[in-house]
Amino acid sequence: MSNTFELALEPFHFQIHTDIPLVAENLRLMYGDRVHDVTNQVGILPYIDYILHITHTNGIRRFFRPQARFKCDQYEPFKPLNHSQAFAMLEWGMNWAIASYEMEHVVIHSGVLARGDDAVLFPAPPGSGKSTMTAHLAFNGWRLLSDEMALITPLSQSVTPFVRPICLKNQSIGLAKQWFTDAQFSSIAKDTHKGDVIHLAPPIHQPSDLCRPATIKAIVFPQYQRGAQIDITELNQAQAMYQLADNAFNYSVLGERGFNTLIGVVEKARCFQILYSQASDVQEFLEQEVLQPKLVETVCE
Amino acid sequence: MLIQSILKQGVHLHPFHDQSGICLYNDNTTEMVTLFMQAAQIESLLDGVTRCSRDERRMLQSLEDKGFIYEHSLSCLTPLN
Predict the structure, then answer these.
(1) Which domains does chain A have, with CATH numbers?
(2) Is the CB of A241 less than 8 angstroms away from the CB of B23?
(3) pLDDT 10s digit of each residue in chain B, 81 long?
């Protein structure tokens, strides 16, 4: 039995076809009322950006160590994985689709969180603690715009929310389950190429948070090190650009507009490299030293 | 010599406001490089006013190899000792 779902994840709409019950269960658990089961019905979304399939492989493999395969508009970017990893594969597939095809925004591999409408980007490679930091802030008064990618409107500092589950790996899983006892977690995908992976449903305080953009005020390149004292280095613009470009997916496709967007972001935001072991230390620094002064200035005016 | 005069057509130059360096973007190859030097420092190397270190020469040579600057732009660099 194959199910069809529509998923309204502003600014994109997905149609998902799956015959894997684990995927259907996790979609409902992670996305709540943003996912619609439209199996054997006319869809309810006005348009679809991406048609995705996450299905069992054919033949005897379906019964002996079953596998899942992912397709985006009939293109299959990944090799099949064990079907217990199917939901994680779908999430990675959605990332892949946006990173590969999105041309309306400059896309940066980065967590994005905001205090009010002041956003901080956390661009970082895997293993830097980006998602743990994202989860901590999202459940402690910050607004989650994305755990995985910053969608920046070209030639502006405006970042568009793309709110999806937070992907946690290995040791962060236990930590997150301790921290957020009331949160919804997906089933665990064991032994993936990233280790054990789980998804954490994002806290959504107001429906308008899902589409309200924020303005980039700071960029933090985080580096987690167990037991480390917090060590903050403010980066100059050339250093920040060097690191930001490393995490940008599509500036080259957007050409001069992409280049000028990255330049504008680096020149208008404060940029830091932060070595940390406690996410709360980073939160305190950002709230008191980076975002707060602006609030105080506004009040004085 | 102004750095703009040796940039190939389609190469964009941006000097950072905080004077920490410059960024070049090549429309033809879509490649971007960030240099931790100001344009004036590079111009001084190209004019032979400042002697070029091994690293600086390598950096400028790589700009030529990657098509950011015209071939033979580096002919006026002061030779290394």
Answers:
(1) 3-101 (no CATH), 106-164+202-300 (3.90.228.20)
(2) yes
(3) 788 888 999 999 999 999 999 999 999 999 999 999 999 998 888 887 778 888 988 898 999 999 999 887 777 666 555
